[in-house]
Amino acid sequence: MSVQNTAQDEHFRAGKALGLDHLKLGMWLFVGSEVMFFGGLIAAFLHYKVNTPSPVETALLDVTLVGINTFILLTSSFTVVLGLARAQNDDRAGLMRFLGLTALLGTVFLAGQVYEFVALYQEGVTLSSSVFGSSFFTLTGFHGLHVLIGVGWALATLAKAVRGGYSRDDHIGVEIFGLYWHFVDIVWIVLFTIIYLI
Amino acid sequence: MEGSSSVTKKKSVRAYVLVFFALALITLIELLLSSMSLNLTRSLLNTLFVVFSLGKAVLVAAFYMHLRSDNRFYTYIFIIPVALLLVFALLVIIR
Amino acid sequence: MSVETPTASKPIEWRRYFRWNTDHKVIGIQYLVTTFFFFMVGGALAMLIRTELAQPGQDLLNGVEYNRFLTNHGSVMIFLWIIPVLAGLGNYLIPLMIGARDMAFPNLNALSFWLIPPAGVLMIASFFVGAAESGWTAYVPLSVTAPMGQTVWAVSVVLLGFSSIFGAINFVTTVLTMRAEGMGFWDLPLFVWGMLATALMVLLATPVLTAGLVLIAMDRLAGTLFFAVAAGGNPIFWQNVFWFYSHPAVYIMILPAMGVISEVFPVFSRKPIFGYKAIAISSMAISVLGLTVWAHHMFTSGMNPALRIPFMITSMIIAVPTGIKIFSWLATMWEGKLRFNTPMLFALGFISLFLIGGITGIFLASIPVDLHVHDTYFVVAHLHFVLFGGSVSAVYAALYYWFPKITGRQYDERLGATHFWLNFLGTNLSYLPLFVAGLLGMPRRVADYAPEFAIYNQLATLGAFLLGISTLPFLYNVIISWIKGPKAGDNPWEALTLEWQTSSPPPEHNFETAPVLSRWPYDFGEKVSPADASEASASAGD
């Protein structure tokens, strides 16, 4: 079995000359591949939006509600960076407060999305009502799934902070979670524009 | 990780706050533009929306994801798939 | 070498190969053995297909069964054999080659492996619920209307996609952050360059396939209309998504193989590799260009005609970096002191077979030729020359070349040569006649054919069985030599890459002391500096 932190470890990390932290690099690579996953779904949505438009259903979208939801998700990104700043200041209580707030805001976003989906279903926009419905629910649904995973991750980070994790010198875990959360936020910024505004 | 004098930290928190207000403001403008019926052509509106969302995405990536201060390599890892995705999406939309 | 812990001489604890283990060497062996098992499964399916095609008429399999065997032959060979076996080689070799203790994320690495067995079991078990029958390309609408097994197939492929993506993250991070002291990018062994280029493509292309499979699964399970033509769905969209992954996948399957070849030639020619930087850069060039050629698979699909020419051009440009590699290998051998051990035989086999596959690929990239031979056996022959003649030959070369490193024992050269010749003849016998059949117009993926194609198919069937038989000396050789082959020593080939500078098999942490790179890995025939004269003095004369 491999031992994570042997004395030899540092010798074997001589390549750090590039200045890359391996956890951060791994996360960025994952984010890069996630861009391409959403890329496939976004390409599908745009393809059908351009070639098989569905103006009646598009008009049923509640831009104001989703705009508020967008604002909530943006705020949750803000709370993550504030939490990180607290962790860098050795303020664990502050970190915990902001992580809790992030998870809460993420949950509110999801609730808003569920509300939106239910309303659309009642108006007859469904997964199988048209290719618009198919691609709309698939794309936003998979984004929602990512938010859900993010909420779980926020809670896990919170749990570790509660158990005394993270400090001035060790906050990479918060930063990695933050990278994921902000990425999901950026995806939503793009989705909001291409689905609701354009 | 980062150089940790309390001055830079305060600065970065202030940047976080400013970026948040910028994000909120842009979102508000977007909502107003889409709800009010101004005398703007559809294509102008769409261009504005694309520019706005691009601006928001760049703000989040540069400040909240620290791409502005971090190793440039991470920026490339993020930009390359985005560029590829644009090419792919454009080619796929053409029927 | 060994100073304190004689780990190498500890009895092999075989149970760890069946458990969650984070040692990259254990994981590498897990990969190699598991994927070879699936190779034999895929080979058995191939022989069933060839038996059906031994004579005109449907005698052994009916049309549906034929489609199922064909679909799973392709899927098993690509997703469960070539792609993961190359990842397995990368797993075993990359940390050793760059002088690292392990991969950057050992647990993620174990996860990458442990996704493969369940995915493989799913794919094979799908036969019980009506296996996938729309080809490995899963073209819609066939893949939407196919029975339950197609969903299982999609789940299996998604799992394998996750496995590759996690593996790629690990490879890139390991190479970028864990190189030995003194090892710059231009000191990386070319196999590592190949894996780096491959990982780049995996990261960029695989998620798109995952997204596409999600769409198919949604159409099948949730009633969405992505590919329902009557409701405005568009089957061409699937083809775009599928080939956006699956054309790069061809390079995912060949770039590491080319990396292996770049390791074998200098060692067995006792000469520095010719054009090191050109080979390294051409790997990256192939991986970038490879992402821009996908629609050449769709020339006959009713794609926008204006896009055909650009895709034809990018496809043909790929021949340039590929040619750079081939000429560099030839120049490496030029006036070298060639040693014809089994890895060298397979590497030479690789060049000749891959060349046939590569050149016919340029024919196919040309629109008029493609319109003529699309969906004929010409394509089948081309693909098998590239993937079997190319990738599989390289995998065999790698397995023989690193066998002494992995096991500490030497294989039997005579059995190795027997294996090579059976394999080489079998490959040519199987696939050369198919070029002719294809040019004459024999369509692929059909269980039956017109009598005039009988002779080509009989030859191909004979070749397929020869290939099946050719694995027997390999298996016998590997198993017997692993148990009681002669001790190989640490560096039997007198190679200079770092993995040969530790004991065989390597100790648990690979190197007793962190290695420092003191010389370029391909300095054969150069003066050896006194400092490392004791180690692996590669004395290739002049």
Could you please describe the fold and organization of this structure?
Chain A is elongated. Chain A is mainly alpha-helical and 198 residues long. Helix content of chain A is 76%, strand content 0%. Chain B is built from three helices and no strands. Chain B has helices at 6-35, 42-64, 72-93. In chain B, helix 1 (6-35) runs antiparallel to helix 2 (42-64). The termini of chain B are far apart. Chain C has 542 residues and is mainly alpha-helical. Helix content of chain C is 63%, strand content 0%. In chain C, helix 7 (190-221) runs antiparallel to helix 8 (235-269). The chains are: A mainly alpha (198), B mainly alpha (95), C mainly alpha (542). Chains in contact: A-B, A-C, B-C. The interface between B and C is small, with 9 and 14 residues.
Write the layout of secondary structure elements.
The complex is a heterotrimer of chains A (198), B (95) and C (542).
Chain A: H1 22-51, H2 55-59, H3 63-88, H4 92-122, H5 131-162, H6 172-197
Helix pairs in contact in A: 1-5, 1-6, 3-4, 3-6, 4-5, 5-6
Chain B: H1 6-35, H2 42-64, H3 72-93
Chain C: H1 24-52, H2 63-97, H3 106-114, H4 116-125, H5 142-145, H6 149-177, H7 190-221, H8 235-269, H9 276-289, H10 308-317, H11 319-333, H12 342-365, H13 367-373, H14 377-407, H15 413-439, H16 454-484
Helix pairs in contact in C: 1-2, 1-3, 1-16, 2-4, 2-6, 2-8, 2-14, 3-6, 4-6, 6-7, 7-8, 7-9, 8-9, 8-11, 8-12, 8-14, 9-11, 12-14, 12-15, 14-15, 15-16
Strand fraction band of chain C?
Answer: under 5%
Rg of chain A over CA atoms, rounded to whole Å, is: 20 Å
Low-confidence stretches of chain C: 1-9, 527-542
Can you tell me the residue ranges of chain A where pLDDT is under 50 for at least 5 consecutive residues?
1-17
Largest sheet of chain A: none
Mean pLDDT of chain A: 90
Q: Which descriptor suits the 3D outline of chain C? A: globular
Count the E strands of chain A.
Answer: 0
- Main sheet of chain C, how many strands, which sense, barrel? none
Overall geometry of chain A comes to elongated
Category by helix and strand content of chain C: mainly alpha
Biggest interface between chains: A-C, 46 and 58 residues
Give the count of helical stretches of chain C.
16
The helix-strand sequence of chain A is HHHHHH
